[in-house]
Amino acid sequence: RNIFSEPTASLNERDSAALLDLLAGFRAAGISSVLISHKLNEVARVADRITVIRLGKVVGEASPTATNTELASLMVGRPVELTVHKGPEKPGEAALVISHLSVIDHRGHLVVNDVSFEVKAGEILAIAGVQGNGQTELTEAIMGLQPRVTGSIVLDGIELRGESTRKVLDSGVGFVPEDRGEDGLIAGFTIAENLMLDRSDGAPFVKGGTLQLGSLAEFAEQKIVEFDIRAQGIGTHAGKLSGGNQQKVVLARELSRDLRLFVAAQPTRGLDVGSIEFVHSRIVATRDAGTPVIVVSTELDEVVALADRIAVMYRGGIVGIVPGSTPRDVLGLMMAGELPD
To answer: Which residues lie below 8 Å from residue 4, measured CB to CB, with a gap of 6+?
Structure first.
């Protein structure tokens, strides 16, 4: 018996298909396999039986002929809208212009190599690629988290390369890091305390060096409702929340400021389909409000659903920038380093 847990998480489209074919081959040879996955299309493609687990308990079984909508509803416990509703973009002028950006990591390796692109106001640029091709370091460079960076990062005419992360945030950049537990939240802080992390040194939460508890409580109560954060109250520690609710706290904090750029790295990693539905809707709403958005994702379904344009990274460089309507098989080849026609 073989057990595979999220085996395609770091694979491109072509390699994922090959692995699923391997599972089918095991079945034909009389070898049983257990596939643990949140990717509904993959489950439906290879499964003979489907067991759904929610909150650590088996909540039902389904046939491989069940629709994705049926499976998603069973997983979440309510009807779920799997389609991202996104009208045509209305892009403005280029707000973020990145020119000849390169990053050398702590090992002395060139991990981002001469990358150039722009993001317009009111559009979503998705950066696609297999994990480990420079996407993490690119977002860290934008946020001032990489010390060895060359090139240019200009937001609304202001150069941000070389600035501190504090200065980048104060310049109106909202950031959802790819590891919310490590970089997005402080587990031992309450929801309210986590919601003020970007604004802990001034109004409206700090005045004359004194924390304004009333203002913070009022703000936190509003965000719990607005972002549908499921918790006993604003005093709940972030570490006690589910992954989806932790991500909602991060989103609530970052999207509650006046933003000139929103960067979301792996925004739905490890989330259930209900939380994914919510996160996607907020990303689209941010774009529709005229804010330039960068979404970095290894999930091709997410890239295709959200992107107005797609930049594909491979070995630290950009293979190409293509329309959001580009076929998935073409994107898969680009993620393997093949140039588009």
So the answer is: 23, 33, 34, 35, 36, 37
Specify the 3-state DSSP secondary structure of 98.
strand
Which residues lie below 8 Å from residue 20, measured CB to CB, with a gap of 6+? 8, 42, 45, 46
Beta bridge partners of 156: none
- Tokens for 286, please give them: 């941010």
Helix (H) or strand (E) holding 159: strand 158-159
pTM value is: 0.84
> If 0-12 CB within 10 Å is exposed, 13-18 middle and 19+ buried, where does residue 325 land?
exposed
Element of type H or E holding 68: helix 68-76
Nearest to 252 by CA among 290, 220, 211, 277: 220
Phi and psi torsions of 85, nearest 5°: -85, 110
Measure the CA–CA gap between 43 and 48, rounded to whole angstroms.
Answer: 9
Which alpha helices (H) appear in 210-316, and where do they start and end?
213-226, 243-255, 273-288, 300-306
What separation, in Å, do the N-terminal and C-terminal C-alpha atoms of the chain show? 42
Q: How many angstroms separate the CA atoms of 52 and 62, rounded?
A: 8
Euclidean distance between CA atoms 18 and 68, whole angstroms: 22
Whole-angstrom distance, CA of residue 205 vs CA of residue 110: 41
Q: What is the pLDDT of residue 226?
A: 92
Q: In angstroms, rounded to a whole number, what is the distance separating the alpha carbons of residues 322 and 308?
A: 9
Give the model confidence (pLDDT) of 118-177 as tens digits.
Answer: 999 999 999 999 889 999 999 999 999 999 999 999 999 999 999 999 999 999 999 999
Q: Considering only 81-90, 96-105, 239-248, 317-326, which range has the smallest mean pLDDT?
A: 81-90
